[in-house]
Amino acid sequence: MKMTTMRAILAALTLGLAAPAFAAGEQPAPPAVKWSFNGPFGTFDRAELQRGYQVYKEVCAACHAMKYVAFRNLRDLGFSEAEVKALAATFQVNDGPNDAGEMFQRAGQPQDKFPSPFPNEKAARASNGGAYPLDLSLIAKARAQGPDYIKALLTGYKPAPAGFALGEGLQYNEYFAGHQIAMPQPLNDDQVTYADGTKASVEQMAHDVSAFLMWAAEPKLEDRKRMGLKVMIFLIVLTGLFFAAKKRIWRKLH
Amino acid sequence: MAGTATQKAGTEPTRRDFIVVAAGAFGAVGAAAAVWPFIHQMNPSADVLALSSTEVDLSQIAAGQSVTILWRGKPVFVRHRTEAEIELARKDDTAALPDPQKDADRVKKPEWLVMMGVCTHLGCVPLGQKGDFGGWFCPCHGSHYDTSGRIRKGPAPLNLPVPDYAFLNDTRIRIG
Amino acid sequence: MADNNSGFFANPLVKWIEYRLPVFSTLDHMVGSQYPTPKNLSYWWNFGSLAGLCLVIQILTGIVLVMHYTPHTAMAFDSVEHIMRDVNYGWLLRYMHANGASMFFIAVYIHIFRGMYYGSYKAPREILWWLGLIIFLLMMATAFMGYVLPWGQMSFWGATVITNLFSAIPLVGEPIVTWLWGGFAVDNPTLNRFFSLHYLLPFVIVGIVILHVLALHQHGSNNPLGIDTKGPQDRIPFHPYYTIKDAFGVGVFLIFFSFFLFYAPNYLGHPDNYIPANPLVTPEHIVPEWYFLPFYAILRSVPDKLGGVLLMFGAILILFVLPWLDTSKVRSAKFRPIYKQLFWVFLIACIGLTYAGGQPPEGLALVIGRACTIYYFAHFIILLPLVGWFEKPLKLPASISEPVLKA
Question: Cβ contacts (< 8 Å) between A89 and chain B: which residues?
C-alpha cells in the first residue's frame, strides 16, 4: 500500500506541475462560478440552456457563427422534435445548386447546422471593422476556465482607467488579454425578454449564455459523467476482487 | 510460518478458487462491455441518422421521361409514366408476381412513379425502359422490372422499394 | 501446474492445437507458469505490463478513430469535431486516445525511473535497456505526430516549432526541414505524412516491444535487491503470481485513467488546440504536452539554437551509454547510500525541468531550467562515474530468499 501512495504522489507531482501555468498576464483570472455542470455529478440546467440559447440567437448570432451545432442538437436543451422543426424553419439556410446551377435559400431543417451570419472570414472582418467575430461552437473549451472566462468577459466592460490609452473603436474590458476588445458591450439589462419570466439582467444573461456555450462545446458532458460513475464503481469492485485474489494466490508463498 | 500458510491454502481450495474465478469472471464481463463502443462506433452516426429530405420539381418532366435524384447516397427514380405504361402496370396486377403488389399501392398519383433505383438483388442501378417488361433492367445479373418497378424475372427477390415521399403541390414532391 | 500434461494442457482441443501450433506452450514460457520470476518484485515492477496495456489501448482506439478522421487541412479539425459530436461513443474513443497518450507516458516514465533506481540497465541487460530507449524515442515521435492531427493551433505551431529544430543543423538544416514539410511551411503534405507515420510507428513499437520482452526473458527480471536469482527457492512462476499482481495493478491504473477520462478529459490538453490551426497567428505561449516539457526546458535553457537542439537530443542519447557511465557493480540503489540520494536529486531535477518547460522562458523559471539542465548532465557524466568508484556499497544479501529466511 505504501508503494501505491508513493506512486500517487509521484503522479500528482508530475501532473500538477504540468498544468499550464501562464496566468502571469496582466488580466485577472476570472472568478470561479458555481455551474450546475461542475463536479462529477454535474448536469446541465435545461431552463438555463434554453435561456442561454435565446441570448445567443437574439444577440450573439448577429455576428458570431456556431458552425458545429445543428438544430437537431437543440433536442438536448429540452425542446421537443416539433419545436426543433419549427425553430429550424424560422431560419433560412443556403442550399443548392439547383437544376439551373444556382445556390438558393430554403427554410432550415433539423439536420442543418446553425447558419453563419457571414459567408466567410473576410466578409466577417469587412463588416466588423477588421475584427473577426469568432465561431463560438468551441469557445468554452478554447479558453482556460472557459465558461468562467466568458461570463467574466461579458460582465467585464468598464470605463477605461485614467491614463489608459484606448485604441480607436476598442472597448475596455477587465478580463480580455490586453484589456482592449473590439466587441462592443453586447449585453444590456432587458436586452432579451425571457419566456420563463426570468429577469434579464446582464449578469443573468451572461450566466445563461456561458452555460449554453459550455453545452455547445461539450454536448456529451452528461453522458460522459454518467458513464464515468458506472465505470468507476465497476473498476473499484473489480480492483477489490483482483486484490483479494492476489492475496489468496500469494498467501501460500509466505 | 511458511509451512502453515501452504497447508492452509491447501486445505481451502474452494474458497481460493471462488474469489479467483469471481475476479476473472468480473474482468471478462468488463472487457466484453468495453468492446461495445468499439463496435457501435461503426453504426451510422447522429448526423447520418438525422433524416434528410430532398425536393423535386415535377413541372419539367414530360410524360415518358424520368429523372434520377440522389437521396441519402442512393439514386431515386422519378418517372412520369405514359397512359400505356400505367395501363400495362395495372393489367399485370393479376399476373404471377414473385413479390405480389398492386400498382395502385406503389404510387400516390398514377402518372408519377417514385422508387429507389437500387436493384434488390445486389444493389446495382437498373437501366430504364429496358428489359422484357418495358420497365427496368439490371445489367449486373439480369433482373427485369416492369413499368411499376415490380420484379418479374431474374435473381432479384423483391420489387424496387418506394421511399417515403409527399406531394407538396401538384408539381413538387419531397422525398424523405 | 508446471508440467505440460495436466490441467489446461490435458484438454484435448488444446492438445490438438498445441501439437500443430505450439501457441499455448510459447505463451506459457513467455508470461505463464514456465517463466521463472524473482519472488521479490515490488509494485514498481507493474509498470512494464501497464505500458503494454497502454500501447494496446492506443492502437485499438486509434484504429477506430481513423475510421472517422480525415487527414486534410480543410477537414481534419471538422472531422475531429464530427467524432466528438456525432459518432457513436466518438467522444469516449477520442478522449481515451488523447488521455491514453498521457497515461502511456506516465507508465513509461515510472518504468524508466524504476530501472534507474534498481540498476536494471546494468549487465547483462544493456540491450534490454537500449530497446526500451528505442521504444521511448518512437513513442515521442508517435505522440508528437499524433498531436498534429487534430489540426488545432497547438498542433500547427507545435509541428512548426519542432520541425524547425532540424533547421539548426549546419548546411543541410534548411533542406531537411523543407523535406520534412513537403513545402515551405507546415501544410497539407505535412499533415498527410504525419498521419501515415502516426499510423505506422505504433506497429514498429509493437515489434520492438517483442524484442524487449525477448531480451527480458534471456536473463529474467531484475529485482529490488538487484542480485541474481541463485536457485529455485528465489523464483516463482510468472503465472499465477505476477499475472494476478499485474491484474490488480491494471485495476488501480484504470481507475486513475478513468478519473482523467471521465472527469477531466481536457486537463492534460491545451485550450488552444480547440482553435482551428491558423498559420497567421501564433498562440501567446507555445507549450508542448506535459511529457515533452523536460526536454523542452533543456532546449530553451541554452541561448544558442544549435546548442539547444544538440543538448535536447543529447539528453535522451546519453541514456544509451548509462550502463557504462554508472561504474558501480552493485545494481540496486538499496545498497548504494550515495547513489540513492543522487537518484532523488535527479528525479527532483527532472520535475524542475518539467516545471520550467511549462513556463515562459524568463526569470526564475529560466534559472530553474538551467540549473536542472546542468544537474541532468552532471548526474550522468560526472557524478555517476565518480560515485561508482568512491562509494562503499552496503553488504549484499547472499540470495533473494536469505532476508526472508532470516525473518
Answer: none
